[in-house]
Amino acid sequence: MTPAVEVRDLSVSYGSTRALREVDLVVRPGRVCGVIGMNGSGKSTLFKALTDTVRPDRGEVRILGGSPAEARRHGRVAYVPQEDGIDRAFPVDVREIVMMGRYGRLGPTRRPRAADHEAVDAALERVDLTRLARRQVGQLSGGQRKRAFVARGIAQDAAVLLLDEPFAGVDRPTEAAITALLRELAAEGRTLLVATHDLHGLAGLCDEAVALRNRVVLHGPIEHVLAPEHLGTVFGLDEQERR
Ligand SMILES: Nc1ncnc2c1ncn2[C@@H]1O[C@H](COP(=O)(O)OP(=O)(O)OP(=O)(O)O)[C@@H](O)[C@H]1O
Q1: What does pLDDT average to over the chain?
Q2: Residue 154: pLDDT band with limits 50, 70, 90
Q3: From CA 236, how far away is CA 73, in angstroms rounded?
Q4: Least crowded by CB within 10 Å, which of 9, 33, 124, 205?
Q5: Among 147-151, 193-197, 204-208, 234-238, which is the least confidently predicted range?
Q6: Domain ABC transporter, which positions (predicted)?
Q7: Residue of minimum CA distance from atom 7 in ligand 1
């Protein structure tokens, strides 16, 4: 089976800062993989490599067997940001955010067709935001905004979703609702990578996890990575103790 995500010997730097070194990672379709590590451990850089927004020093990245540029062009990969990067004062509503997931499919007129509107309606329904479809994005709660961006990925029909801190700032019921939704997406065969520095909530969401400290320090089933004896490896406590 072609892996959903395949990273071989990937190294990325920003000037003299080596953000990722010699990373190998294979994630099969339909899996939810946590990408865990402290601030600065390279999680965002890995996502940038998967979305073709950073140039690696060396190594190879494949999304469903193709290059990240192809995956991006065909809308196979969607990014669900932690902070949405949209000015809260910017006049855009939930429906328009979700419609952005269809942009890659719109013709030269950029005018959405019936199929695009239907896909947006279905995505809104799925994340339970139908009733807030015309709400300005600046007037949403953090949890609602996250769901709007997950809906954008659903409308895009992306096979691979990259989620940045999906539980940051959301309450427990919202966390449970987001977890259930993400598990459903995985059950449909989509692949999810979930970046976080917080281990909370991962056990119920992820099948597996990779721990980064600018390189892969651990990768395996979620219960293995979260085992108490591995926390030192995941967070680098073993190195601190040796100092
Ligand atoms: N544009 C940039 N220019 C220079 N250095 C950068 C840039 N982006 C990231 N870095 C550095 O690369 C390393 C990895 O950063 P990255 O953002 O990938 O980590 P992260 O795990 O996503 O962190 P966080 O949890 O804080 O978001 C860090 O040392 C960071 O300071």
Answers
A1: 90
A2: very high
A3: 37
A4: 9
A5: 234-238
A6: 5-239
A7: 14
Residue 174 confidence (pLDDT) above 90:
no
Pocket test for ligand 1, best of 45, 46, 53, 167 (most atoms within 8 A of CB): 45
Give the helix, strand, coil percentages of the chain, each rounded to 5: 40, 25, 35
19 CA to centre of ligand 1 in angstroms: 6
Ligand 1: does its nearest atom lie under 6 Å from the Cβ of 219?
Answer: no
- The answer to whether residue 114 scores a pLDDT higher than 80 is yes
**pLDDT for 116 beyond 70:** yes
The tokens of 195 are what?
């970046």
Please give the CATH superfamily to which domain 5-235 belongs. P-loop containing nucleotide triphosphate hydrolases (3.40.50.300)
Q: How far apart are CA 238 and CA 38, in angstroms?
A: 14
Q: How far is the CA of 178 from the centre of ligand 1 (A)?
A: 26
> 17 CA distance to ligand 1 centroid (A)?
9
Give the pLDDT mean for 195-212. Answer: 93
| Ligand 1 nearest-atom number relative to CA 42 | 18
Amino acid at 156: Q
Distance from the alpha carbon of residue 49 to the mean position of ligand 1, in angstroms: 13
